[in-house]
Structure formats: C-alpha cells, structure tokens
Amino acid sequence: MSANNNTKFNSSLFLLTGIPGIEDVHLWISILFCLTYALSILGNSIILHVIRKDTSLHKPMYVFLSMLAITDIGLSIATMPTILGIYMLNYREISFNACFAQLFFIHFLQCTESSLLLLMAFDRYIAICDPLRYASILTLPRVTKMGLLCVLRGLAMILPLPLLLKRYQYCRIGILSHSYCLHQDVMKTACSDITVNSVYGLIARLLTMGLDSLLIFLSYVMILSAVLSIVSRTECMKALNTCVSHLCAVLIFYIPEIGLTVIFRFVKGYSPMLSVLLGYMSVLVPPLLNPIVYSVKSKHLRARVIRVFIR
User: Integer distance in angstroms from the first to the last C-alpha of the chain?
Assistant: First the structure.
C-alpha cells in the first residue's frame, strides 16, 4: 500500500534544477535575479506608460513595441516564481499541472514575441521601401488586428504541447535541467513513446520561430537593397539607423533560442552549464534589454522616458 502511495507521489512531481555546482551562493544569485526581474518589469512598464500617455507615439512602430513590452512582462512573470523559488527558498518541486501551465505560457509568449518581431520587420520594410504608402498600409486598426493574429497563432501552435504531454505516463520524479519547465525538457522525462510530441514540437518550432527568422532575414535583404540604392550617404545611414534597435532585439531573442533548439535536438553529450546559461539568456535577457535598446536608439521615446524620471 505504501509503495503504491509512493508511486503516485513520485508520478505527480517534477524537480527543477538551478545552476549546477554553485549551490553555496544561491542566495547571492537570487539577488541578481530579483534585480533583473525588477528592472525588466519596470523598464517595460515605463515603455507602456509612455506610449499610452503620449498621443504622438500612437504610431505602428510604437504600438508594436508596446505589444512587445506586454509580452516581455508576461515572460518575466511566467518564469519568476520557480526561478526565485529555487534560489531564494531552495524549493525545487513543481506539480505536473503547474509545470504544464508554465511551459505553455513560456512557449506561447516566446512564439508571440517572434511573431511581433516579424511584424516590426515588416513595419521597417514598408517605412523604408514604400514610405508613401506607409500610413495607408499600416493603419492603427490593421495593426491591432495583426497583433491579435500573433496571439491566436501562438495559441494554435503551442496549446497542443501541454495537452499531448498530459497523455504520457511518468513513472518517476522527472528531474528537469532548468529552473522552469520547457517542452523539450519535460518531454524527455516521460516513460512513453514521445515521437508525436517530438515531431510536433519540431514542426511547431519550424513554423513559428524558424519561419519568422527566415522572413525577417529576407525583409532585411530587401531593406538593405533599397537602402544601398539611395545616392545620399546621409540618407542611407539615417534609414539604416531606424533598423538598429529592431536588429538588436532580433539577435537578443533568436541567438539563445536557436542555440537551445540545436543543443536539445542535435547535440549529444552537451555541457549542462551551456544549456542552463542559454536557457536563462532566452527568458531573462530579452525582457531586460529590449526597453533599453529601444529607449537608447529612439530619440522620441528616449526624450519621453527621461521626462518620466525627471517628473
């Protein structure tokens, strides 16, 4: 009877993992994470407040930026409880349902962010390659509908992941390699055949981040072609400068994500530390740096953010 109870208990939990080998300094690391979360939420909240209050910023580029800020706040909130729970309280356990919910929100928000970065690339393409039609193509109602499509796309692509995972048998406590739940990580702890999840997860990744990154790359090829045809060097640099913040956001987001995907699926015997660091970069760095990058590179936004602090 006790063995059955133990089996039931074991099959209803996952164990999360912090950075291996540095358990003695977890409390100090928790201070760094707390500071990162505080700055991420504060920075994105200021961006949202400034864009909402200032009607001169009610333009497609800034509307997309506000959507990105909301997504980044959501990503910070989705990962905060388990990461801080490990480093502040040394609490590693997470129930199946909580883990499935967390992995859904993390992947859903990352998928939505990828879609938004594609829309922002489209915004820059229209602004540079077809500026006379910019206002007629990217109207605010159309921009809102495009944002809603990003959300619906994320829901449609990511919702099957936790639903498929719930069908599997987990015969022991699964030890995950991160401080939060990821689909690839949870999937590998199942005792059942995971072929369906493995194939669907790869297809979903290719149709979202894979396709988005390819389209962003193609949009910048066309932007670069259009910019190089500009005779005036000053105008050429001015046009390119409007893309710098978006390019930084794209690199900040995609480099860790591509690295994690390659490691999980194609690399055998990879270093656990590399996987952990790339994981933290993928969920912590974009929400922290996006507000800074856009505030530094956009004169209009920077002036209004400074005004918030002066007041």
Answer: 66
How confident is the model over 277-290, as a mean pLDDT?
A: 94
* Amino acid at site 52: R
- The reported pTM is 0.91
Pairwise CA distance, residues 256 & 22, whole Å: 22
The CATH superfamily holding the domain 22-310 is Rhodopsin 7-helix transmembrane proteins (1.20.1070.10)
**Closest to 212 (Cα-Cα) out of 108, 125, 91, 120:** 120
Cα–Cα distance measured from residue 172 to residue 189, given in angstroms and rounded to the nearest whole number = 8
Whether the CB-CB separation of 137 and 309 falls below 8 Å is answered with no
* Mean predicted lDDT score pLDDT of the chain: 88
pLDDT at residue number 11: 55
According to DSSP, the β-strands at 93-95 and 174-175 are unpaired
- DSSP for 31-65, written as a single string: HHHHHHHHHHHHHHHHHHHHHHH-GGG-SHHHHHH
Q: What is the pLDDT of residues 110-146, one digit of tens each?
A: 999 999 999 999 999 999 888 899 999 999 999 999 9
Six-digit token string for 242: 């409007």
* Separation of alpha carbons 147 and 143, rounded Å: 6
CB distance 264 to 257 below 8 Å? no
Give the CA diameter of the chain. 82
Note the helical H segments in the chain: 2-10, 26-53, 60-89, 96-129, 134-137, 140-158, 160-165, 183-187, 195-205, 211-228, 233-266, 272-297, 299-310
Distances (CA, A) of 176 to 8, 15, 43, 47, 128: 19, 6, 31, 34, 45
Spatial CA neighbour of 215 closest among 203, 223, 225, 227: 223
pLDDT tens per residue, range 146-166: 999 999 999 999 999 999 999
- Dist. CA 62–CA 53, nearest whole Å: 12
